[in-house]
Amino acid sequence: MSSTWSRTVSRRTLCLLAAGGLALGVAACGDGDSGAQAGGKVKITVTGQPPTSQPFERSVFDADVKEFEAAHPNIDIDPHEGFMDPKTFSAKLAGGQLEDVYYVYFTDPAQIIARHQAADITEAAKSVPHINDIKPELLDNFRDANGKLYGLPTMNYTMGLLYSRPLFQKAGLDPDKPPQTWDEVREAAKKISALGNGVVGYADYSKNNQGGWHLTGWLYSMGGDIARKDGDKWVADFDNEKGRKALQYLHDMRWTDNSMGAKQLLEAQDVQRMMGAGQLGMYMAAPDNVPVLVKQFNGKYEDYGIAGMPGGQGTLLGGEGYMINPKASPEKVKAGLEWIQWKYLNPDRFEKHIQQYVEGKQPVGLPAEPTPDVWTGAVREQQLTLKAKYANVPAKNFQSYVDTTSKIKGSIEPPNAQQIYAALDSVMQAVLTDQNANIDQQLKSAASKVDSVLAQVK
C-alpha cells in the first residue's frame, strides 16, 4: 500500500542529476563521506531490523548481521529498527538522516525514482549473483521509463482467497477443491452462511483505504484495472462493465444472499478476528494472513487453506524491496548491494534460513515464508523443494494458491494508490451498507475523484 510523498530534492540529489550518474555525481559534488573507516572498512546504515516486540525475527536479523560481517570483514552494518515512514522520508533524505539502504513498499519506487530519491544501481547490480533469476516483473517495478534500475525486490505476494477448511466441511464443500470463480465463491458463501449461529460466508473490507485496496483486487481478478495510461497521463479505468460487475457481486452477496453478514465497515483486524474465531468462511487475502490468524487470533494452521484469486484473469501483486540513498558513495552502493543480496536474495542460504524457522518453531510450508517468492526457474524449484522437505504446516492446504499464482498475471497497485483507495472506500461502503445504492453513480463519482488524484502523478 502506497503513500503520498512531499517533494523535497536535496542539493546533493540535484548535483547527482547534473552530473548524469552516481559515480560522476559523487566526484562532482562529494560530501567527503565515502563510508570508509580506518582499516578500509565501509560502514552502511540499513533499515529493516524488526522491533524487540518480535523476538524471533529480531534474533534472526541480528544473527544475520554478525554472520554477514564475519563473511565480509570490509563492511560494517549499522542496523536501524523499523521499515518505511513516508511522512518523514523526504525530510530525512534532505537532512542527511536517511539510511544508506532503505526499505520500500512496491507502491513507492515509481515516486521515489521520479523525485530522484534513490541511487541508480543499473551498472552496480550487474554483478549481483542470481539477479537474472528474479522475476522480471518484480525488477521492472524498480526501473524507470528508460530501464535504469534503482532497487531490488526482496518479498512478493499476490492476493488469493483465504478460507476455513472446517466450515467448508460443515457446509458440505470439499476443502481440497476451493472456489475458482466468483460464481463459485458466491455459492459457497451461501452454503456456509446457511450454517447459522452467526457464521458469515464471505467478508470484505470497506474502510481505512482497505476497501479501495480490495476493490482493486476484485477488478484485477476480472481482467480489469483501476487506472491506465492515456498518452502521457493517467486516468481512472473502472467506471465500466467490469467495475459494475465487481460491485454487483458484492451487492448481491450482501443483500440478495445475506451471506456477508449485517455488520459492515470492516477492516483487516475485524475480518481476521472473525476467521480466527471460526465464524467466517472466506475473505480475500495474501498468505501472510495465516500466521496472523494463528499468532494473534488463536487459529490453527491446519484449519486454513488459500486458493488462487477467483476469476483467474489477474491478481493484485504487492511486496517490498530495498533502495539505496542517492547520496551514497560508490563504495556504499557496492556494500549495500552485497548486504541486500546476501541477506534477502541468497539461494545459498535458503536451507539455513528455513532451518532457523524450524528451530524457532515458526511456520515452514506457507507460500511466502520463510524464503521470498521472487524467483523463477531452477532457483524457484530449489526453493520449493527445500520448503517441502522442512514443512511443519500442511503445505497441501495452500497448493491451489501456489499453482494459480504461477499461471496468472500479477499487477502492481496503481500510482498514488493510497489516495485512490480512499476514494474507492466510499464505493465499497455504499454498496455494502445501502441496498439501494446506485452503482453507476458511485462509479462515476469515484472515477472523477480518482482522475483528480492521478492528475498529480508526474
From TrEMBL:
<protein>
    <submittedName>
        <fullName>Sugar ABC transporter substrate-binding protein</fullName>
    </submittedName>
</protein>
<feature type="signal peptide">
    <location>
        <begin position="1"/>
        <end position="28"/>
    </location>
</feature>
<dbReference type="InterPro" id="IPR006311">
    <property type="entry name" value="TAT_signal"/>
</dbReference>
<keyword id="KW-0732">Signal</keyword>
<dbReference type="InterPro" id="IPR006059">
    <property type="entry name" value="SBP"/>
</dbReference>
<dbReference type="Pfam" id="PF01547">
    <property type="entry name" value="SBP_bac_1"/>
</dbReference>
<dbReference type="InterPro" id="IPR050490">
    <property type="entry name" value="Bact_solute-bd_prot1"/>
</dbReference>
